[in-house]
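FIELD: query
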Amino acid sequence: MIRVGIAGFGNIGRGVEKAVCAAEDMELVAVFTRRDPSTIKLDMSTAPVFSASAAEKMIQEIDVMILCGGSATDLAIQGPHFASLFSTVDSFDTHAKIPEYLDIMDDAAQSTTAIVSTGWDPGLFSMMRALSEAVIPSGATYTFWGKGVSQGHSDAIRRIEGVAHAVQYTVPLQDAIDLVRSGTLPELETRQKHLRECYVVAKPDADKAAIKTAIKTMPNYFADYDTVVHFIEREELLANHSTMPHGGMVLRSGATGETKQGMEFSLNLASNPEFTGSVMTAYARAAHRMALEGLYGAKTVFDVPLSYLAPSNRATWIKELL
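FIELD: result
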């Protein structure tokens, strides 16, 4: 039985809890939070909830810690701290900073295994981009996200001074998708592929103009996109923007010789955090197996054999799926 801890209990943490409780080879040992533990109520488990600082006392009781903090500010601090104590899995999703974060985690994981940037993008979509470019080397790869709620981008908006709550939708532009499927290998700028639409609840007396500017100019998140910001009341946000759907697709368009070829991989998710949590939980299984083999240090989804994700054994997967 793989003994799992959850660090952070927001939307993704709740998704991880559901996935761990559904896994026959896993046990949820504890949840760790920066909030008052008495205010945290688990959905599926009777596992105890502790202050984040208590994790250091449970090194011998937890095989893998699944890190559910945000990429904007949390994981840069929490990631290396926990990786120095436990094998970890996280969903760090600031694409431009992944190489830097990977190096930091590698330095911290001297006797543990830290699998970074899991989830679906980065994560599954990364794998599909790599696979499609390997089998159709002559061509171009395109990634479209949405329409759906981006947790990382929503979290980044909520960190802005004066913001009480916010939800951000990533909206793919259909004209761009159709152009890619035509096989003409278009060169598309970032803002030609997606629109970012933000619904923001401002705190009383907040400077809405400053909030809008901070959103639209935020590097790595909004600066390269056409971004629409709507200020709404909390009641409207709860009524119309409380679910977290998402999805997207990876398309590879190219040729083998003179023959046009295309590959597509798509997701249609009713709950982004639950799906992300499920992917992270699968990689927790891999992190534990790799740690048992002494494969320490920071890893990405490119470094993990698919058989390490299997809830059954490798032979069963070969028999049933190959």
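FIELD: remark
The CA atoms of residues 125 and 131 lie 10 Å apart.
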